[in-house]
Amino acid sequence: MDALFLAIFALIVIQASKYRPCPLLEKMVAAGRLGRKAGRGFYEYAEKKA
Questions:
Q1: pTM reported for the whole predicted model
Q2: Which of 2, 6, 15, 37 is most buried, judged by most C-beta within 10 A?
Q3: Average pLDDT of the residues of the chain
Q4: For 35, left (φ over 0), alpha (ψ -120 to 50), or beta?
């Protein structure tokens, strides 16, 4: 999720604010809810046992 946010942010810098990320994505990235690698995003991910 953070990769998507950074890609959209790069488009803002290069192009215009036409490609601004949605407010929900901004809030989730700011809260550290980055998806599977953080264990939480739109969903809560359980840790896998090895």
A1: 0.57
A2: 2
A3: 79
A4: left
